[in-house]
Give the backbone structure.
Amino acid sequence: MKVFGFRIRFNVEPSRRFSSDTNPVAVEDHGGSLKAIEGATMADATRFALRMGGFATAEDAERVGFQWADAIVIAGLRLRTGFDVGRFALGLGGASAYLKQLVREDFGIIIRNEVHGLDVFEDTPTTRFVAASGTAQGNMRADHLVTTLRASVPPTPLAPKLRLALDLFGLARFERSPRVRFLTLISAIEVLTTRAPSSAAALVLVDSWERALASADADVRDVLTNRLRELRRESIGVACRQLVRDHGGDAAVKDFRRLYDVRSTLVHDGEVPGEDFSAVAQRATDLTALVLESLVSKIVPAFPTT
């Protein structure tokens, strides 16, 4: 009878390292393991593979695999560490079809080329993975990472917008440019918003302006009608402030206003003279983490403190 498994290959931000006396580190779920796939030891690695098996169908393996991919980005939030899980399978090169066939026939070994992200496969004892690939660091115990992962598995799939925001938060930590990191983090907040309808008074005005456009030139009418349609919903800035207020309070909103003003100036002018973007990016990191932690805590139990 066939048995299926999954493997999630993910990258760790360059400034973070995980130490362990063993490689791989056991994960007490589905016969799982966390293995460094680059470097001689865990502490040397910036790429890891989380592998689990024993599933009756490929669909079961894929479903649980997606849960653990979500767990990785949630753990990244909780550990303030960037994890890039690759939401879409990305081949990394490796063995040719001829070489894989030759190794299987001569040695009974099944070779699979590395995939960045989630890979579901028929699990056998002889399955092996191969790939071809051509700062200051913080250290953390790998068993702490495993503990955080196990505490971060959501009971159901994350909503697409929350998943994207978590991905952006993690990927921001890979960015060396403070400006790019800052913009990525603000985008994570924007992704999470839902724009509410404008007030009744505002909608009455919009209706009157649309009626006034009825006799205008067709090209002008089309352009202005599209603009007026946007006025039927609150602005993205207002929606962001409400989201931040709901999950961080008035003090967080005050800080977000300042950050969003910086974002607007940067996007429209290309620069913000005199701004310290290293400090701004750190404030955006703290604020985005505050909002995400609040949202995630409603889905996954609070992160263990030990």
Residues 187-196+234-293 form one domain. The longest strand covers residues 4-12. The CA atoms of residues 198 and 232 lie 5 Å apart.
